Amino acid sequence: MQAADREIARQTALRARAVAEFAASRPASADRPPGAPGAMAAERWAGRAGVLRPVSEWAAQELAVALALSEPAAEALLERSLTLVHRLPAVLAALEAGVLHPGHLWPLLEHLAPVADDALRAALEGELLAWVAGRAVSTPAQLGAKARRLVLARDARAAADRLVRAVRRRGIEVRPDRVAGMSVVTALLSTPEARALLAALGAYADALPTDPADGRSRGQRMADCLLDLVLRPGESGRAPVQVTLTVVAPVGALLGGDAACEIDGQVVPAEVVRALLAALAGIPVAVAEPDAGAAAPDATGTDLHSEPDTDRHTDTETDAETDAETEPHTGGRVDRGATAHLAAQLGWQAREQQELERWWAECERRVLTGEHEPGPDPVPGEELLRWLTEHGPPPKSGEDLGEGPAPDLDAPPSAAPPSDPGEGWWARADRAVDDASAALLAAQQAIGHARRLVATADHADTTDETTRAHGPAGRAGVARDALTALHAATDEHRDALAALLQRTAGGGLADRPRLALTDALTGALLALTDLPALRRADRAGTGLHRPPATDGYRPAAALDRYVRARDRRCRFPGCRHRVPPGGELDHTRPWPDGETSAANLAGFCTRHHRGKHQAPGWHHDLAPDGTLTVTTPTGLTATTTPPPY
């Protein structure tokens, strides 16, 4: 089976290369150009994936016939194949070698391929492939989570842009199910909203009275609760339920950095967690106060004052008129150095425009006076001079302008006023020159305006990134550990963080926030504490460590909390289910032969907990550091470690 699977992967890679080779033989240059009658609509062309734009729009139809696919499926195959060949060549090679299987492609195409920077994408590609090669089992879901975390850590700005665009697509869709008479309703929500919705429906379903005659599953009861809550609100009279979301956030993320966070085990950007905590706890955990003591030079050598990351620009679009006429701002203050640099840029553009206007005036003068020699550099309008050179100089004064053959410029532009039937061809040509000069000048003015907008946007973006990188948020984001991040924070940041940590039940949080002491290199959980315990350990001088073993069968509260925080997900190889809030902590060596300690406890989902005790021929071995080795009845082994922080 493994050999067959490797062959399927190899053939999938060969098909992708063949599809890309076919696409190269069908260039878009053979299609009608944009704007021509019968050409692809501009909206549809703009909506095509970037890798498809060099390919003829009819290639998908030909591929659909060749492979007996629908045209949308053929176009999707074209896009996937070209993306693998041109943007993820190492992934394609790993697929061809059998290191990956086709299921691994989806998370890589979804999360890795959109990275715009070629060097960064190649580096992430190599890191992910090394991660897969170093594991006995790496499912597509695990690879997707790893890819999300890496992209968020290394390409945070682009990830934030994608998040903004995705939030704008929030909505509800319905589609027919594969079974006639059934439909699927899909809600695109932010991760906190989705997790809270799921938890609330589960709580409502669990609150229903138990009836032995009720054959509905929990999922069916959740669906019925959803319908009742939406279609018949207020009819049940039941009290609202409360839900709990488990949020994991590094100190740097709470201080304005870009470190990836988790909500109920789902990887999310730091901005999502900061917004959620601000909404639930009523505390803005990233305070927008300037750090007057920090300054950093930008690319032009001017000093830019730093600011924390509380209102970063994430939209890629800018207001054209505003950007062209206003000065860049940083944290509500006008940056005089950046303004001077921008003014110098705009002054240069103005001088360029003046040169253009002087050149055109000279061009018109040479046309009218008969000076036909073109200028030293080919510029727009020299074609007109060459045409006049070929057809002779302007007629002398007093010559009949109504005689002689009319050149190609005989027909004036449609926007020009009707010509006098009695006027000569030179008068019409002269008016055509005026019209052309006005159109060219307007075009050059538009180009100059666009250049100014691009320069303004580029400089503002560089200023924003440089300012943030050297401010408290940037320094906290790149800090190697929590102590360094706290040292980089402002007093306002630290006060807000302390206020958040002191919140308990009733203050928007269901439980006191826990502080996880982790290994800075491996991300392994070393200790779990909170502010009162931290103060007690400081006074006693005992330091922080794992909770001690429990004498009885059930772990004490501190040990139970520690093991769940360490494992978070089912430890069975490849499983991504969360460890349930209650139960499912298993003694690797049965109690009382094995003690109730962190070195002998592992978290499982319900199914794999049952399988550990009931599936014949399986063996589980847990190392003191939490590494679990599972051996199958056929002798295959797979090792899992607790997910790093």
From TrEMBL:
Residues 293-335, 388-426 are annotated as: Disordered. Pfam families: DUF222 (PF02720). Residues 35-279 form the DUF222 domain. Residues 304-316, 326-335 have a biased composition (Basic and acidic residues). Residues 293-302 have a biased composition (Low complexity). This is DUF222 domain-containing protein. It comes from Geodermatophilus telluris.
